[in-house]
Amino acid sequence: MPLPVLTINGLAMSFGASEVLKNVSFSVAPGETMGLFGKSGSGKTTIGRCIVWLEKPTGGEILVHGMDILSMRKKEFRKLRPKIQMIFQHPETSLDPRMKAFENLIEPLKLHSGLKKDALLKRGEELAKLTGLRPEHLARYPGQLSGGEIQRIVLARIMALSPDFIVADEPTSMLDVSVQAQILHLMQKLQRETGVSYLLISHDLEVLRKICHRIAYLENGTITSIENINRGIRI
Ligand SMILES: Nc1ncnc2c1ncn2[C@@H]1O[C@H](COP(=O)(O)OP(=O)(O)OP(=O)(O)O)[C@@H](O)[C@H]1O
């Protein structure tokens, strides 16, 4: 068995007196999509936010490639951070509304890749193609794009960092059904091409059953069961 990309052991989280997560444990293998299902308020987003260091849990361990990220120093975590990404329910909040789509797309490359201008533009065009974006989309501002097109830009930006693991928090819940299917197909294609793993958070079991390899069920901050989906990952 390959080492899991992500292992969560006994994760606990309280906000004041309110205990939101209790003894949450699961792991995600390379190239796997793990679903995280639960009702509103069950603690799904809190788990995702703990994984990317947006919240500090009150107990437990989070291991990425076997390394405990909660005991890491800021500098050490910063090196690992490009490899662990999160997509949010409102993807437009990840983009700068004053920059055109292509500028938004290449921004992480400018910050992290060290590529010179020509190579950077070429890589940006490759990522746009990979995520099914057309030149006319790239010339627009985020406010002039549809929800599905914005989610494609967000995915392209994230793929620019060659992540090993993506927490996708309700990435399609704001989209209508046909666009939802396109984005899920795109996520599957990116997984086939790069081996990226996903933690796909949703309160829509139908969506999770379509693309997950396993689904963890969360109730009141506790994992009650993990279901194996015994079929291929294609929709
Ligand atoms: N920063 C915070 N301070 C206090 N309570 C919080 C904070 N963040 C989340 N909570 C509470 O923790 C609980 C779990 O929230 P969380 O957002 O993780 O649930 P969720 O399952 O993702 O819900 P939804 O599906 O509605 O997004 C909720 O009761 C929420 O009010």
Tell me what you see in this structure.
By secondary structure, this protein is α/β, with parallel strands linked by helices. It has one domain: 3-Layer(aba) Sandwich (Rossmann fold), CATH 3.40.50.300. The protein has 8 helices and 10 strands. The protein has a 6-stranded mixed beta sheet with strand order 6-7-8-3-9-10, sandwiched between helices. A hairpin with a 2-residue loop joins strand 4 and strand 5. Helix 4 crosses helix 6 and helix 6 packs parallel to helix 7. It is globular, with a radius of gyration of 18 Å. The two termini are 26 Å apart. The mean pLDDT is 92. The structure holds adenosine-5'-triphosphate (ATP). The site of adenosine-5'-triphosphate (ATP) has 11 residues, from helix 1.
The outline comes out as: globular
> What hetero molecules are in the model?
adenosine-5'-triphosphate
Terminal CA distance reads: 26 Å
How many strand units? Answer: 10
Radius of gyration over C-alpha positions, nearest whole angstrom = 18 Å
Question: Mind summarizing the main beta sheet?
Answer: 6 strands, mixed
Q: What is the CATH architecture assignment?
A: 3-Layer(aba) Sandwich
Structural class: alpha/beta
Instruction: Give the CATH class.
Output: Alpha Beta
What is the residue-mean pLDDT, rounded to a whole number? Answer: 92
